[in-house]
Amino acid sequence: MDTAFYERRLREELAALAAASEDGKDARSPVILDQQSVGRLSRMDALQQQAMAVATEERRRIRMLALRAALERVAAGAFGDCVRCGEKISVKRLDLDPTIATCIACARATVE
Fold first, then answer.
1. Are the C-beta atoms of residues 59 and 80 closer than 8 Å to each other?
2. What is the helix (H) or strand (E) element at residue 99, kind and residue range?
3. Quick check: 79 and 70 in contact, CB under 8 A?
């Protein structure tokens, strides 16, 4: 398995998410509107957009945590090993999402 390839992929995605988080900072800030010049629907639209930006940032934060955890496994030499049973995670599974930390058998056992 080419661990360097996955590490590069993880770092690139983490950098892209960090940049997107920085770019979206203004959209997540509290909505301050001039009550005299903005109508009720415009206020509701602004509040809805802010709520969507906050929800997007939360999903981004969770993904960034998963990316950092995968990078920690790379650094520890444990990337590609299931965190539950220690078996190798299939390359196809890691190609789909390199943050996956469990083999398919353990993932199934968790769902059942």
1. no
2. none
3. yes
Nearest-10 crossing angle of helices 3-23, 40-75: 160
Query: Helices in the chain by DSSP H: which ranges?
Result: 3-23, 25-28, 40-75, 91-96, 104-111
Structure tokens at 30: 């509290």
What's the longest Cα–Cα distance across the chain? Answer: 64
Q: Specify the pTM.
A: 0.83
CB neighbours of 94 closer than 8 A, spacing ≥ 6? 1, 6, 80, 100
pLDDT digits (tens, 9 = 90+) for 13-55: 999 999 999 988 777 777 666 555 556 667 778 788 888 999 9
Beta bridge mates, 76:
none
Residue type for position 48: Q
**3-state DSSP percent of the chain in helix, strand and coil, to 5:** 65, 0, 30
Domain residue ranges of the chain, discontinuous segments joined by +? 3-111
Fold of 3-111: Four Helix Bundle (Hemerythrin (Met), subunit A) (1.20.120)
